[in-house]
Each structure stands twice: as C-alpha cells, then as structure tokens.
C-alpha cells in the first residue's frame, strides 16, 4: 500500500497540471448535473416490516391521496370577558372558522362541539383539530394562508385565536455552519503552518472535494430520493474529513522537506506514509457510515451512503490533488520569514537548541504518571456520560393515532366500526375517538384516536401497544383487522427499530473496523483499546446531548428552543459517525508510534516520537473538525442542530481526552505487549504496510540499482548522469532512504 501510494504521490506531483484539470473537469460535470436537477425530495420515513408501515401501505391502496403521516393543526379559541365559548354567537364563529380551516388539503376537521372533551370545564376555552391528507413537508403555502385567514376570521369576531401543530411547519433556516467552520479552520491552519499559502491548500482542496461530492448528491437527489438533510449531513462530514486529510499529508510533506528530501520525493513519501493512514482512516469512516444500511430504514441508509461517498472523494482528493497542489505552491509551503532566512532551499534550518514540542513534553509526563492520567481521564468521561442513564427517545412530532380498519371480511362494517370505537373510548389514555370513516369501496375505514398525553410521552407509546394488543379481540368480535398507524405510531415503531438494530449494527461496524485495525497495527491490544476508547467518547457525547436537549442545560446559550426526548435516529447515527471519526485520530496518531517502534525505538520512545511528530497536527485537525460541526448548531432544523452539537463534543472528548491522554497512558502500561501479534494471526493477516517498512525496502533496492548504474558509467548515484536532478521513473532519482539530499529549489 505505502509503495503504491508513494508512486502515486510522485506521479501526481509531476503531472500536477493534468491532475488539477481532471478534478476541475469532475467539479464542472457534477455542477452541471446539480444545476439541471430538481429540488431535493423530502425525507421518506418508511419503516419496512413494521405495523405502521403495513397500515400506511394499505391506506395508500384503499384511500388514495391520504397519508398515514398526515399533518395536524390545532386551533384554540378563548371567549372574551369570561363569556362561554358555547354561547350562540361564539359557537357560530367557531363553526365558521373550523369550516374555513377544513378546506384545501384537510381530510378532517373536528369541531369542539363534536367532542365535549375539546372544551374546558369552565366553558371558556375550546380547540378544534384539523387533520390533513399529506405530511407537514407537503403542506402548501395556500393551505397555511387558509389556516391563518380562518384564525383572523375568529379574531375579527372578538375571540382570542391561537394555532399550533406541524401543519404550520416552515422549512427551517439551516444556518451558515459551513461558513463558520471554514473561517475557524482557516485561522487554525494559519497558526499551524505560519503560511497563508500552506493554510489555504487544505481548505481549497477540501472545498473542491466536498463540492464534487455535494453536487453529485444534488444531481442524483431526485432519482435516489436524497433529501436536503442528507445533503447537509454529507457536507458536514465531507468538509471536516476533507480538511483533516489534506492537513495530514501537507504536514508530512513539510516534515519530509525538513529532513532534506527534494520536493517530489517529499511528496511521494508524504502520500506513501501519511496517505496510507488517510486511506485506512477513511475506510473506517466509510464502514461506519455504510453499515447504517443494516438498520433497514431507507432514510438512514441514504444518509449513510451519501456521507460515505463524500468521504471516499475526500480520500481521493488527499492522495491525488493534494500532492499536485504541493507541486504548484513550491517554496511557499513555508512562511515568508522561513524563505527569507533560507533563500536557497526555502526550508527552515534545524535548531538543535529548540525545546521539545508541547506534544512530546505531554507524552513524557504521561509516561511518568500513566495510572494518574488514565484514571483521571476515565472518571471525567464517566461523569459526563452519566445523563445517558436517563436517555429517553421519542418521535418529537405531534399527531393523532390513526386506526385502519380492514373490513373485507366483516358482515356489518358500520356496526363493526361503532363497536370498535366504543371499546377504544373505554381504554386508558384515550382523549377522543372519531367515527369510522369508510372508503368508497366500503371495505376499509379510518378512525382517529387522540391520546390524552403528548405524542412523545411514554403514556402515548403504551397506548399504541395496548391498541395493537387488542387487535386480536377486535378481529374475533367484528371480523375486522385493525392496524395502528399515524405519525405518532410511525415514530414509536421507528424507536423500536432503532433499539433492535443497535446491537447488530455495533457488532458489524466494530467487527469490521477491528479487523481493519488488526491489519494496520499488527496488534490485538491496540485495536481493542481503540474500540473501548470510542465507547467512552460516544457515551460521554450522548450524555452531553441528553443534558442539553433533554434536560435543558445551556439550552438558551445554544439556541435550543424546546427540550424533550432525543430523536430516535440520533444515537445510532452518532455512533456510526463518531466511531469512524474517532478511528481517524487513532490511525493518524498511533501509526506514527508504530512507525517509530518498527524502526527500532523502544515503546516509550515511540510514544514520545508519535506525539512529537503528530500531536500538533492531530490537535489542529480536531479543532478544525469541532469547528465545522459546531457551526451547524446554529441551524434551525432540530436534527441538524443536535447532530452538530453531538459530533462536536464527541470529537472534543475523543481527540483531547481519549487519544491524547488515555491512549499514551494505556500504551505506556502495556509496553512491548501493545505491539505483539500471535504468529498464527500474523501469517494469515495481509500486511498493508501502513508504517512504510516495505516502502523503505523498496527505496533501498532502488538506491542499489542506481548505484550499480553509476558504476557502469551511467552517472552518479542519483541516476541519469546528473545527481542534482531527480529521475522521472517511478520511485527513482534522489529518493533513496538514506541519501537525504538537499531540497531542490522550485
């Protein structure tokens, strides 16, 4: 792997203009496809195999044009000056308002005078309920305007009228998260590199990659059903990993230049070593995101594959476009002060008296106090994770329950509907039961059931289960098959599907990633430690999400307008994304340690070397990723806000506590045992050579060939007769592992 990527990096460096043009062409083609595509569709929350979905499918067949997840609106009336809302003139006004609101896309309008439970005990307040045949995203502006006009009709007559419900939902402002994230990323990169050009390189290449990915998703959106939420999440993840991957390769390139490589050789080695880590880190993210398909919920599958696609593009950009861009910037990869101080090479001179970097000093401290660091870090994350024990999942939407009565085998459909309605009214937790409304064929009917508790409550979920438990009795008594659906029931089923899928999903994703990390690190304990560290990160992140979005801590500061149950899809999606991103930092940081260990350093020395060479870059990468995710907290869409916050705090915990504290502490305690692999396992596992051991052997062999050519009169050791000019053959020229010539000016 490292040897192939080394050759690819050198090729991209030499043919930089061609590589850049190919990416520009891809971007242009994707942009054209996006510009000709229609608007992205709404999320389709279908749940294959659930009762709610079976009922929804049957409803579509028997009641064309009626949606199981239909939107709902409530209109609340209050009589003035202590009057009764039941007074004749107020009653007439209410009826007119309900009649006007019940037009257009509405399928049912229940007046408070049709159900006494919709009138307060003192008779001054009442509410009407309007149910629509389409979901909230399909409600037209005309229908909303009609609702508002109906309310004004009541106000003009002297009533106080207020409205609520998802029928009034307006597409939220998604915020400018990507702009905020890019701005913070630019600042961090300038501080890290000390050069505007070097800082701009990861940003520009990442933006090209994410633009290609997002434009492709937009172009395919109408065909594959990729919604605006899918696009936003793909952008969030693609932008974060794109900047990080480019940052790691650019940083390794600068390090190779400082060791005396010429620029093409430095690009090849950077892609061969850091690029190998990028490929395998990207693979862990792709596995985690693609694994969402096992949940068997189309919307999650689409989100996972779309985001995984942007990660694949980010990896391809990092190993092709980044080395090409490095060739274009030349000496400007370092700041002006460095170039002025070293005009011949443009590379900073080594400083033997310089203090060890902060990362190396922290690693040395951890080696002296591994138990203290480990216990402190674990206890801190454990404390933050405590709110997870109170995690409550819920649909987060309002809506009545809908009972679908399949009356094909009923001798008396009307009587059956009345008997079922009577029995449902007697059940605990039921506020209102509407009459059974038959279809034109008379073989099915719909019945609306309004729970007493709010839709996201445990009581309403219990009511759904109780209604389904009574289905057998209903069928035996009336010959009618009863299915419970509606938006609330759909979300109850959604939560159950999430719960059932969690263990299989974790087993698949963690299992595949564990095998991948076995190949990368040639160790059993290192991947095991990585997985356990991830568990701490995700539990702490979910604890923070519960504290903010369910308990309301710092809710005002973060712009959380309403607290409540955590959305059902949040935990499993967070687990998938966090696992992939957590493995990124594990791969980047620990491969540096393994590289040093393989090349002869002791376990303790390898830890310090890994931190000396990688801690600064990992820190910068984590800050960038946190900034990108945190920028989306300002979105109006609750799911995007929650996802942005959850991912930001997860990266904070994982990068700065797990990878920077727990990892070196555990490795210090394990010593040589950390890098051991049973011989039988070593024989059957393919060697992917992330640490570049085979690459070093390849370069040594290439050096020997070059020397033999020189002995035959073909020129000096560099080959080609001119030792100052690198060969254009793959891996040739002045790239020998031990030659280390001075950099060539570009």
Automatic annotation (TrEMBL):
Its main location: membrane. Belongs to the resistance-nodulation-cell division (RND) (TC 2.A.6) family. MmpL subfamily. The chain crosses the membrane at residues 179-199, 206-225, 231-250, 271-297, 303-329, 371-389, 502-521, 533-554, 566-585, 613-633, 645-670. It is a multi-pass membrane protein. The keyword Nucleotidyltransferase does not apply. Residues 1-33 form the signal peptide. Residues 196-328 form the SSD domain. This is MMPL family transporter. Residues 715-735 have a biased composition (Gly residues). Keywords: Cell membrane, Membrane, Signal, Transmembrane, Transmembrane helix. It comes from the Bacteria. Residues 707-746 are annotated as: Disordered. Residues 736-746 have a biased composition (Low complexity). PANTHER family: MEMBRANE PROTEIN MJ1562-RELATED (PTHR33406), MEMBRANE PROTEIN SCO6666-RELATED (PTHR33406:SF11). It is found in: Cell membrane. Pfam families: MMPL (PF03176).
């Amino acid at each position: 792997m490292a040897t192939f990527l080394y050759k690819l990096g050198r090729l991209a460096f030499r043919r930089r203009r061609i590589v850049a043009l190919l990416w520009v062409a891809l971007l242009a083609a994707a942009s054209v496809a996006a510009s000709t595509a229609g608007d992205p569709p709404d999320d389709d929350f279908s749940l294959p195999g659930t009762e709610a979905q079976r009922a929804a499918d049957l409803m579509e067949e028997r009641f064309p044009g009626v949606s199981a997840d239909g939107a709902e609106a409530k209109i609340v009336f209050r009589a003035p000056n202590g009057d009764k809302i039941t007074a004749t003139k107020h009653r007439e006004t209410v009826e007119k308002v309900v009649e006007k609101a019940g037009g257009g896309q509405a399928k049912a309008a229940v007046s408070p005078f049709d159900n006494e439970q919709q009138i307060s005990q003192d008779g001054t307040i009442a509410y009407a309920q309007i149910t629509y045949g389409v979901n909230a995203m399909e409600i037209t502006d005309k229908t909303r305007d009609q609702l508002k006009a109906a309310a004004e009709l009541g106000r003009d007559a002297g009533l106080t009228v207020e409205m609520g419900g998802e029928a009034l939902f307006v597409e939220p402002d998604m915020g400018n998260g990507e702009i905020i994230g890019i701005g913070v990323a630019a600042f961090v990169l300038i501080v890290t590199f000390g050069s505007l050009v070097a800082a701009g390189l990861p940003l520009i290449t990442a933006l090209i990659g994410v633009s290609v990915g997002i434009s492709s998703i937009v172009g395919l959106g109408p065909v594959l059903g990729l919604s605006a939420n899918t696009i936003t999440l793909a952008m969030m993840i693609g932008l974060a990993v794109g900047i990080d991957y480019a940052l790691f390769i650019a940083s390794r390139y600068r390090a190779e230049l400082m060791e005396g490589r010429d620029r093409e050789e430095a690009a090849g080695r950077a892609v061969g070593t850091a690029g190998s880590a990028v490929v395998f880190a990207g693979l862990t993210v792709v596995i985690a995101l693609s694994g969402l398909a096992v949940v068997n919920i189309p919307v999650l599958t689409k989100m996972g594959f779309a985001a995984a696609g942007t990660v694949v593009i980010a990896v391809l950009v990092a190993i092709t476009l980044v080395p090409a861009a490095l060739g274009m910037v030349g000496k400007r990869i370092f700041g002006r002060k460095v170039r002025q101080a070293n005009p011949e090479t443009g590379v900073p001179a080594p400083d033997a008296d310089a203090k060890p970097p902060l990362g190396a000093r922290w690693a040395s401290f951890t080696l002296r106090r591994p138990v203290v660091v480990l216990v402190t870090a674990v206890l801190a994350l454990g404390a933050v994770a405590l709110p997870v024990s109170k995690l409550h999942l819920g649909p987060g939407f309002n809506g009545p329950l809908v009972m679908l009565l399949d009356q094909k085998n009923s001798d008396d459909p009307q009587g059956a509907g009345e008997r079922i309605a009577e029995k449902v009214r007697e059940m605990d937790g039921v506020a209102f039961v509407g009459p059974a409304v038959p279809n034109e064929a008379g073989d099915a009917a719909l019945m609306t059931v309004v729970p007493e508790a709010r839709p996201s409550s445990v009581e309403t979920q219990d009511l759904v289960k109780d209604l389904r438990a009574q289905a057998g009795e209903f069928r035996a008594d009336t010959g009618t098959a009863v299915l419970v659906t509606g938006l609330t029931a759909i979300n109850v089923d959604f939560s159950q599907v999430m719960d059932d899928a969690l263990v299989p999903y974790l087993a698949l994703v963690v299992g595949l990633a564990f095998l991948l990390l076995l190949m990368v690190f040639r160790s059993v304990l290192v991947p095991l430690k990585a997985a356990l560290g991830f568990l701490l990160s995700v539990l702490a992140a979910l604890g923070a999400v519960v504290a903010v979005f369910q308990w309301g801590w710092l809710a005002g500061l973060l712009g959380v307008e309403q607290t409540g149950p955590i959305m059902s899809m949040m935990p499993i999606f967070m687990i998938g994304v966090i696992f992939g991103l957590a493995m990124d930092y594990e791969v980047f940081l620990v491969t540096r340690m393994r590289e040093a260990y393989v090349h002869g350093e002791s376990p303790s020395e390898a830890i310090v070397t890994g931190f000396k060479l990688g801690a600064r870059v990992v820190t910068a990468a984590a800050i960038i990723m946190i900034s990108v995710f945190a920028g989306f907290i300002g979105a109006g869409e609750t799911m995007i806000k929650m996802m942005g916050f959850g991912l930001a705090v997860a990266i904070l915990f994982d990068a700065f506590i797990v990878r920077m504290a727990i990892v070196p502490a555990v490795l210090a305690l394990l010593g040589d045992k950390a890098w051991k692999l049973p011989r039988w396992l070593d024989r059957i596992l393919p060697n992917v050579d992330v640490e570049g051991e085979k690459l070093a052997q390849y370069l040594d062999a290439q050096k020997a060939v070059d020397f033999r050519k020189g002995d035959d009169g073909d020129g000096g050791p560099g080959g080609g007769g001119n030792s100052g000019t690198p060969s254009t053959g793959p891996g040739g020229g002045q790239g020998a592992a031990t030659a280390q010539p001075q950099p060539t000016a570009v």
